[in-house]
Design goal:
- The protein is globular.
- Helix content is 54%, strand content 7%.
- Helix 1 packs parallel to helix 3 and helix 5 packs across helix 8 (174-181).
- It is α+β, with helices and mostly antiparallel strands.
- Strand 1, helix 1 and strand 2 (41-44) form a beta-alpha-beta unit.
- The chain has a four-stranded mixed sheet with strand order 2-1-3-4, with helices on one face.
- It has helices at residues 24-36, 53-58, 78-88, 100-112, 114-125, 128-149, 162-167, 174-181, 185-188, 192-200, 203-206, 212-226, and strands spanning 15-19, 41-44, 67-70, 73-76.
- It folds into two domains: 15-88, Glutaredoxin (3-Layer(aba) Sandwich); 100-226, Up-down Bundle (Glutathione S-transferase Yfyf (Class Pi), Chain A, domain 2).
């Protein structure tokens, strides 16, 4: 599996990201940190086995990644972390626009992107009517995102921002969703593929995301772990 485990110890760096190599939610944080030019220590976590004491102490409620430690203080949940980075480091690259209404729209659509992963997960976990319902949902969600993108370069216009950072880590998962759901992203959301290519030209994205083949291997591993045929 990609990503080497690091020893779990109390970190000393100002910023430490507790993460898992293929987590799209952790990848959001890695992309944001790269865009902002913020140095941080990466701490690979075990999610399919015993979780580290550091992770359990840092996120006792959900016990999951990502967690950002800033001066030893934990910030949990990817979208909360992205907003925190904007507020804690205001002189770095801004993920959110300055206009209050535009900020509100960005927050809305960033949260909406989670539905891609939620519906996609049900595609490979479930069968029959439940899978069909998940297929209908992801088609609807992708269609709504495509409509919101419209003819813009990025979701916020010409600037790569919060919604792009939130959505782009799901792109390598889409080929697997297409196969399990027997759907076509290009037909469902015809403007998203070109948007994804534009995002991939950014160094922050290119260095963070894994190829769809690696993601598909991980989904196959998850199916074995959960006993799904």
């Amino acid at each position: 599996m990609a990503g080497e485990k690091q020893q779990q110890q109390q970190p000393e760096a100002e910023l430490v990201l507790l993460d898992f190599w293929v987590s799209p939610f952790g990848q959001r944080c890695r992309i944001a940190l790269a865009e902002k030019g913020l140095a941080y220590e990466y701490s690979e976590q075990e999610l399919l086995g015993a979780k580290s004491d550091l992770l359990l102490r840092s996120n006792p409620v959900h016990k999951k990644v990502p967690v950002l430690l800033h001066g030893g203080r934990p910030v949990c949940e990817s979208l909360v972390i992205l907003a925190y980075l904007d507020e804690a480091f205001p002189d770095s690259y801004a993920l959110l626009p300055s206009d209050p209404y535009a900020r509100a729209r960005a927050r809305f659509w960033a949260a909406y992107t989670d539905k891609v992963y939620e519906a996609g997960t049900r595609l490979w976990k479930l069968k029959g009517d439940a899978r069909a319902q998940a297929r209908d949902e992801i088609v609807r969600v992708l269609g709504n995102l495509d409509a919101e993108l419209g003819d813009k370069k990025f979701f916020g216009g010409d600037v790569f921002g919060l919604v792009d950072v939130a959505l782009v880590p799901f792109v390598p998962w889409l080929p697997s969703y297409e196969r399990y759901g027997e759907l076509s992203v290009e037909e469902t959301a015809p403007r998203l593929p070109a948007w994804a290519r534009r995002c991939a030209e950014r160094e922050s994205v290119a260095k963070t995301l894994y190829p769809p083949e690696k993601v598909d291997e991980f989904i196959t591993l998850l199916k074995k772990v959960y006993g799904i045929e």
